[in-house]
Amino acid sequence: MSIDNMQGNVAFPPNPHAAVSIRGLFKRFGNNIAVNGLSLDIPVGSFYGLVGPNGAGKTTTLNMVTGLLTPDAGLAMILGADVWRNVNAAKRIIGVMPQPDQIFDRLTGLQLLVYAGMLRGMKRTEATARARDLLAAFDLNAAAGTMVTDYSAGMTKKICLASAMIHSPRILVLDEPFESVDPVSSANLKDILIEYARTGGTVIISSHVMALVEKMCTHVAVVNNGQVCAAGTIDQVAQGEDLEDRFLQLVGGRHEAAHLSWLDGGKALA
Fold first, then answer.
1. Domain containing 41 — which CATH number?
2. pTM
3. How many independent structural domains does the chain possess?
4. Is the pLDDT of residue 4 over 50?
5. Residue pLDDT, tens place only, 12-41
6. Could you give the 3-state DSSP secondary structure of residue 94?
7. Which is deepest, 186, 207, 215, 228, by most CB within 10 Å?
8. 3-class secondary structure per residue, 146-171
9. Residue 130 sits in which domain range?
């Protein structure tokens, strides 16, 4: 199905006032349906968590919304504009955090950020000034001249996030942004993202850490089998329960611990 014909599968109109409005998004890989008619609205200025078990369709959905993966059907809009009618225009107003294997790690931290800014059309002087601001904000000043390949996992995560923010996007899309980040750096990153959302920016994160989502996010969507099980504010989705317990109710899959006769803490050897 062509992109121009996708709107025929949209069950109800998208919300032009939302930061992101998705209707009937569908993606198949061979015999596997990764995203199955997913619809969702993400309000402007929200800190939105996308949660779900492995293989639920979170990353595939985000890749389609951000113009990195072509949908088979459905509609994705960013700030009222159809992503797939003008994908380059959509990409200019969003910041997507790259994965560590997607960056040029033979550049220094400063060079990588300046390069990311200039790719976005910024002049070198402006990109350099912003890069230095970000290095300071992310506690990477001492590593500004170090090649990224020599960074720790947590430092690499931070430089990836910084590269997504250098052009001051209106929407930030972050896939597991706090994985491998130490608690101090994680706290600093959270403060930066929360302040960004307070200024009117929209943050969308996918995460497996329910406690983090419950503490940071204003809204959450639970995704399973390529569809949204529940969406709304944290309180609306949790319904008075711990978010993790509510999540397990929605997606299922929890079972009693397996009782393995040989797994006895070494009692048999004693």
1. 3.40.50.300
2. 0.86
3. 1
4. no
5. 899 999 999 999 999 999 999 999 999 999
6. strand
7. 207
8. CEHHHCCHHHHHHHHHHHHHCCCCCE
9. 20-251
Three-state secondary-structure class, residue 55: coil
pLDDT at 157 over 60: yes
Between CA 76 and CA 81 the distance in angstroms is: 8
Q: How far apart are CA 26 and CA 73, in angstroms?
A: 5
Would you state the structure tokens that stand for residue 52, as one six-digit string? 């779900």
Q: Which of 40, 42, 43, 5 is nearest to 25 (CA)?
A: 40
Which residue's entry shows tokens 């997607």?
Answer: 102
Residue 7 has pLDDT above 50, yes or no: no
The angle subtended at Cα 263 by Cα 257 and Cα 268, nearest 5°, is 145
Is residue 21 within 8 Å of residue 41, measured between CB atoms? yes
Residue 265 domain flag: no
- pLDDT tens per residue, range 101-135: 899 999 999 999 999 999 999 999 999 999 999 99
Going from the C-alpha of 141 to that of each of 77, 121, 130, 185, the distances in angstroms are 37, 24, 13, 13
Q: What confidence score (pLDDT) does residue 38 get? A: 96
Residues 6+ apart with CB under 8 A from 128: 110, 114, 117
CA-CA distance, 171 to 167, in Å (whole number)?
A: 11
In this structure, what token pair is assigned to residue 267?
Answer: 């009692």
Instruction: Name the residue with tokens 């992109």.
Output: 3
Structure tokens at 248: 């397990």
Within-domain flag for 54: yes
Tokens found for residue 256: 């009693």
Q: Is residue 219 part of a domain?
A: yes
The answer to whether residue 79 sits within a structural domain is: yes
